[in-house]
Amino acid sequence: MILIIDDAPDLRAMFQALLANAGFPVRTAATAADGLTIALTQKPKLILLDICMPGMDGFGFIRAVHKIECLRDVKIIILSGMDSTVTKEKAAALGVEHVFIKGKFEIIELLSLVDQLVAQPAGAESSGKDASTAIS
Predict the structure, then answer these.
(1) Buried b / exposed e across 9-37, counting CB within 10 Å, b at 16+?
(2) Domains of the chain
(3) Stated pTM of the model
(4) Beta partners for 48?
(5) 102-113 pLDDT, tens per residue?
(6) Paired residues of 128 in beta bridges
């Protein structure tokens, strides 16, 4: 299962439809807190995560996930509108698989990475791990 956490309903729906149409089971959450609850009960293989959200932001969510033993190996992709070096450096330091900047990447590249990450056993390292590069 892939969990999408984004406070923008239109983006949540778009990514949900995209991934569901590609054959992935998907759950969504509008807040990091709701996402954490779903992650604890559903144990996703991958989380697509926004950074700027009300309440707990995406980085706070990642730190919380890393403190929970059963979620430590869940792979995370950031989907953010924040195209900054600081965001990419924080993401890399937290072990994020990749940062995609909303509106600046090709859908096929996201789907390819999702397919690759979901196919990997838990705890396996991604050969394409790159939290510092946005796809233009």
Answers:
(1) eebbeebbebbeeeebebbbbbbbbebbe
(2) 2-9+28-119 (3.40.50.2300)
(3) 0.84
(4) 4, 77
(5) 878 888 999 999
(6) none
